[in-house]
Design brief:
Blueprint (H helix, E strand, L loop, with lengths): L3 H13 L2 E3 L5 E3 L10 H9 L8 E3 L2 E3 L3 H14 L4 H8 L5 H4 L12 H18 L6 H19 L34 H25 L1
Antiparallel strand pairs: 1-2, 3-4
């Protein structure tokens, strides 16, 4: 927790300036992201409570909540099942860092944003990765799994568009070899907390394994 003097100064920035408050009592400054005291719980719960597809998802004939946190968890678990490295799996778990402070912008809207705005969002994500010591050894691998999971989500959670055919260039479906949706069917979490808790468990397990691998090297 911050002391009273720091709290007062940060509170003023929070109200009038460029910071937002975080769940564990610290702040995130959009113009000085490296100063953040963000915890992994702040990170996990922010993503767990951020909906994908602007909330337009269905399962078992009814509208459901499906969050970015669960998206990260499903992809991470799939990478582990497929035999990818612990570091690659951790990179997927943490690949949505910029969405922690900004939320999930609809992909078609991103090219419409001013370049300076997109650069700020990207720089915030990089600062958060640096804060947690996250590296991405193989960005292309993470992107491929992200696209495959996107295709799976469209198939399982947006049946209203199942009749459409998508291409790899549209960041979509199964048309391109190597970008097929996964065989397993997505079941949305009953509550966002479930995704947050699963996220935190995976983070703990993966970072512990990396630490043990490093000690054994």
């Amino acid at each position: 927790m911050l002391n009273d003097t720091t709290n007062a100064a940060e509170a003023a920035k929070h109200i009038y300036g460029s910071t937002i408050g975080l769940g564990d009592g610290s702040y995130f400054d959009y113009l000085d992201p490296a100063s953040t005291g963000m915890t992994m719980e702040d990170y996990a719960y922010a993503l767990a409570y951020t909906c994908r597809f602007r909330g337009q998802t269905w399962s078992n004939g009814r509208r459901v909540f499906y969050g970015v946190g669960q998206h990260c968890v499903i992809g991470t678990e799939r990478m582990l099942v497929d035999g990818h490295s612990v570091r690659d799996a951790l990179a997927f778990l943490m690949h949505e860092s910029d969405e922690v402070p900004w939320g999930d912008f609809a992909s078609p809207a991103k090219p419409l944003m001013p370049a300076e705005f997109r650069a700020l969002i990207k720089s915030n994500g990089k600062a958060i990765d640096l804060h947690f010591g996250i590296v991405t050894p193989d960005p292309d691998l993470i992107k491929r799994y992200d696209i495959r999971l996107f295709a799976t989500e469209k198939r399982d959670l947006m049946p209203q568009f199942s009749r459409q055919t998508w291409t790899k260039d549209q960041i979509s479906t199964a048309a391109a070899e190597g970008y097929e949706p996964f065989d397993s069917v997505i079941t949305p979490a009953a509550h966002p907390d479930e995704a947050a808790e699963r996220f935190l468990m995976l983070y703990s397990v993966l970072t512990d394994r990396l630490a043990r691998e490093g000690a054994a090297a």
